[in-house]
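re: that chain from earlier
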Amino acid sequence: MNFRNQRIENSILRIFFELLYNQFAWGYDFISQLVSSGLWKSWILTTLPYLHGKRILEIGHGPGHLQIAISKQNSDVYGLDSSKNMGRLAKRKLVKSGYSMKLVQAYTQFIPFPDESFDQIVSTFPSDYMYHDFTLQEVFRVLRWDGELIILPVAWITEVKCYCRLTDWMFKATGQNPRADDTWLIPFEKNGFSAEILIIRLSTSEQAIIIAKKLPIKNK
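^ sequence. v structure.
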């Protein structure tokens, strides 16, 4: 396959995932579990041990699985997502599980909360918008001092079975499982955070988690 054909194939897959997150949100859970060999929810929940703040905002809450899991820890959790369809889906899941809905439809570049509103902010498998200066400046603004941004950017399959290899190929094709390196930390350090990458190992996969801590603003 030549480079041009590869780019076309990658673009088609990206369009597919964009449609899945918006117009076809009703099928998101099924497809996510399918293409991840059933690991999608497990990957998302690997962020839970790092979410200890009293007031937490999830950016890109999707169908609401992490919202429910954080709520079980008795945290005051909010969710933000630009997808109206995902908002509806998450609200139904929260109501069915007996938890209150604290979801807002908005873009991350304009987070509709006051300064220093949250102890922690979490985002799992976000798109490139999460690393833009506008987004990180908004995250910095609404985090309290010493607050943390927790991101699960990628996961990759380590199992050698054929269906797992197919999953790994799909994630590579959409740019969702490059190997972690320290260059990933540059956007965070540029915008007032100290950051580190953790590698979480499960039986058939690995995930990278970025922990970015808000630093005090130095007096000029």
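The two ends are 55 Å apart (CA to CA).
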